[in-house]
Each structure stands twice: as structure tokens, then as C-alpha cells.
């Protein structure tokens, strides 16, 4: 794969895949009420269901947002999700503008026994935010973020992107843990756990989730918090999208100086062993303010490299002192660690994973950055450097929670490894996937589980991955979604 061409094409793809903003009333009335004939849809069980013109009209007239069928303007744009690998055609797209729109869509899907996908940012790597022949409940028009500076909290709509959340909070000198790609959706990101550049200081995103507004399978709108429906709040903190469609999230925020010491240090790949050997011993003693982790990738100009992303959430002068031993290792070809705006930093990877690329990933939660792991990382990458390795460093505040405090059980791991490949040509699909699968297989002996937001093929391993939390999750699933309406996720089947 030509990495230079890939980067250039991904930038173009990101522009081409941008969604048009649809006006509510005029567009909605047209598409919601003018179905030319009954349509065929897919049921929860995979059989065909007929949706008559009157059924579709009834939903359209109840909603404030537009309801789209395949022949209507905007459908082609609306059905597309971030990963170009997933080219699916929902029978109907309900573009919600309010919590009541979500309720109407959930009721419609349940009453007619329809397959239902919930789309926030559309960033689900495995493509579970869309479906063929079912209903797409589209939250992408609901992007508002309300920040309360007095309580240092924020209410965030279920369709907001991480960039929306960062923009609103940083403007008030506040922040919470968000991911590393600004066009990722808040909803799916949060419900799976939420790793980001600040997690060692503030914990995962779920550790900052105070409550939510959610529409459950019975069509009820529930305001949930630790004092109201505590079991359901617990389930939302890492149990995935199994329990309903979240219309709003309530986050704890933290005072934050957005000018942070951050950037990349890059070495040629022949120095990988020196860098990783040092990192294995160094990272365990890092302060909570320091976030760093190795990446192995092929740079368009530099070729195969090993890199470290640095983010120091504190006094830059102290960060420089903590960073000095790493800077003394080998001979870096790039040292781009400077004091810069965190908001800018949060967009650095946006182009690399732009909308429209065909992408595949595997991941592994690693308990110890051992010598054996170092050996296997280097051997796998050198053997075929067309895939890339990225990491999320754990420890610090991530480890403050016990395995059963939230559904996300991997609190005692040191690192999350992500094996990623991206391309534009559909003819490379099998090759691109196999690169990641081979690398993951080589690292499997070091893995203690996986991160649900990235995993492509985890369905058969769901119970094992949730570990001691699975039985409780099943009980909550049975209470709030006994018919398994919300099943397009790493599914927890009701009992």
C-alpha cells in the first residue's frame, strides 16, 4: 500500500463524506409522507417485514426530524458511516432532532419487530451503527453541549462528536476525557469505556459519567443517575449500546489549562528495541500527568518508524524533567514536543482516519509491557510494516476503579494495543484485514481481553471479556431490553 497516496486520499475522502445539513420541516414532510409504495424491511429475526405507506406516514408525522427512504434526497449521504468498509442500506433512516423523535423511532421499530441500529457519530469500527434493511436511528442532528461552570458539569447530546464536547468545555477552561479523533461520536465512545489523552489523570470517560437521559426498549424516557436507576447507570458505564438509545450524557468536568506540553518523538525503526526496552521500565514510574505510548507505523517520508506521543497535563517545566530520560534514548529524527493548544492536538489524527477510508482494526489489553511483548511487537512489525500499531496508556486514574465498579473490567492493565490498517481500494479488503489479524494473533498470548469499541470480531467472546460483570449485565439487559431490541453491539443477550 502506498502510504503517501493513502494519506492524500483520506483527506479528500473526509471532505467528500461530509453530511449536508437538512432543514427540518420542509424536507421532513416530503420524505415522511410520500412513500411511493410499501417497502420491505428486515425483522429482528432476519425475516422480511412489509412496511406500508400508512405506517411510514404515521412515523413521519409524529417526528420533527426527517424520515428518509432510499429514493429520497439525502439518503445516500445519511446512510454512510465513517468506515468505508461498511456499505449498508437501511430500509428507513429516522434523523432524530429530539428525545421524543428517538422515542417515536424506538416505538416504531419495536411495534413492527424491526432490526434497529443506533447511529451517533457513525464511528463504530465494526459498522454496528448501520444495518441492511432495518431502521437506522440517526442522532447526528442532535449535537448540543451545555456546560455548567458552577457545577463543572456538562450535558451532551447523544449525536455530538468529541470535537463538539471539547469545543464547548475548553471554552470554559474545563475538560473531560475524550478520544484522539475529534469526529468520533460521544455516544458509542462513552458507552464502550472512553480512552483518551487525559485518562491517566481523570480516568476513562465512563469514570466521569454522572448520568444520562435514555430511551429504553419500552419507549420510556428515563432520567438516570446514581440516585435514580443506579443499575442502569452502572450498565451504561462500559456495557455498550445494549440498554437503549441515549439522548443525553451528563459528564463531570475538570479545570484545565489547554496549553499542554505535547507532541511526537520519532526514531527510525532500527532503534525500536532501544526505545521499547527503555519504555518498558520507564512507563511504570510515570506521574499521572504524563500520558505516552509507543506507535509503530510507516511514515510517508521517513519510512518505518517508532514514535512516542507525549501529553503532559501539568506544569510544562515539570513535564520536561519527566520527559528528559526518554529524549536521551537513541537518536530521534523528529522531536515535536512543544507547548501547544490541546484543542489543536485533539485534531491531529483526524485526517489519518478520515471519513470514507476502508479500515480494519484489532486490539489487545496487555497486563505487562514485558520483554516477550517487546520481542513480538518488533518481529511482527518488521515482518510486514504496512499495518500500524497505536497504544493507549493505562494506569493512573484508570486503575483507581475496581474491576466490578463499572462493566469495563480491564482496570489493572498497563497498555491497550491497537493494530490498524487503512486503504481506499476495495480489492485490498482481505489483505488489509489479514495484516491486523496476523499481528493480533502473534500478540494474543500477551492479551487479557479487548476494548469493545475497537474489536471487530468479539461477539463470541463477549461474556469472557466482561468477566465478573457479565451476569449482572445480563440481569440489567433482561430488565430493560427483554426482547433484545438493541442488539447491534457486542451483544449481551437477555436471559
Q: How are the secondary structure elements laid out?
A:
Blueprint (H helix, E strand, L loop, with lengths): L2 H14 L8 H9 L5 E4 L5 E4 L1 H10 L4 E2 L6 H5 L12 E4 L3 H13 L4 E4 L15 E4 L6 E4 L4 E5 L4 H9 L3 E2 L10 H7 L6 H4 L6 E7 L5 E5 L4 H7 L8 E8 L1 E2 L3 E10 L3 H11 L7 E10 L3 E10 L3 H12 L6 E2 L2 E4 H4 L12 E9 L4 H13 L4 E6 L21 E9 L5 H15 L18 H5 L3 H11 L15
Helix pairs in contact: 2-3, 10-13, 13-14
Please provide a written account of the structure:
- The strands form six sheets. A five-stranded antiparallel β-sheet has the order 7-8-12-10-11.
- It has 495 residues and is of the alpha+beta class.
- The protein has 16 helices and 21 strands.
- The protein has three domains: 19-138, Uridine Diphospho-n-acetylenolpyruvylglucosamine Reductase, domain 2 (2-Layer Sandwich), CATH 3.30.43.10; 145-256, Uridine Diphospho-n-acetylenolpyruvylglucosamine Reductase, domain 3 (2-Layer Sandwich), CATH 3.30.465; 259-457, Vanillyl-alcohol Oxidase, Chain A, domain 3, CATH 3.40.462.
- Strand 15 and strand 16 form a beta hairpin.
- Helix 2 packs antiparallel against helix 3 (53-62), helix 10 runs antiparallel to helix 13 and helix 13 (371-383) runs antiparallel to helix 14.
